[in-house]
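It is worth pausing here to work through a concrete case rather than discussing structure prediction in the abstract. The textbook approach is simple: state the sequence, then state the predicted structure, then interpret. We follow exactly that order.
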Amino acid sequence: MMLERCETCRREFKSIWDYPQIEITSLTESTADSIPKTLTLSNEAEARRMPRSCEELKSFLERVAGSPQKITRIVSPDVVKFFVEHPETTTYSNSNGWIYSRHYTEPERILCAPNRADEIKKALFQDFALQGYMDRLREIKGKIVPPGVLNPGFADFSRLRDYGENPGPFLILTLKENFEEKKLYLNIETTGLGASLFRETGKQGIRFATLTYRAAF
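Step two, the predicted structure:
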């Protein structure tokens, strides 16, 4: 049975970082094929809309003229055709490398952003710092080590190219713990200029690896 208090001082263990030593019992890693095929950044989303009659379109543009996210462009014919033929579908990707999503409260409003999946996948599996960290985790799997060795020693590890006037955001590695299940999740997110990384499901971030551990005394 796993000890939850220090045998010497009776201090309660509440996190993986509280244990003097741990053993990594398993390491599950994402593969290139498991990375989502659709990845967009929130700060790159641009609002467009499905075409309506000229009068309706004019009225709509006037109504949102004061919005921070002005709608000034109409989606291309292939996007219109797809959403007309698939009224229950919320996301469309075409050959130009952009992702088009219906707004959840205004179906005729379309949010579009460049698909970053290929660029992010390349960064994940070719970045020297991140892959060096993963090599370290593979090496200590099954060994008894102090939990501090799990600290990657970095956060930002790859800057994405910019589609606008500002520097592109960084990819960052974050560690999220489930203490009850004795799991540590390695997640990929973004930082800079309010950018958030979204999968096609609308959820943020990528689960890059999961390790399980046990206390070792």
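Step three, interpretation. Confidence is low (pLDDT under 50) at residues 68-72. The first helix runs from residue 54 to 63.
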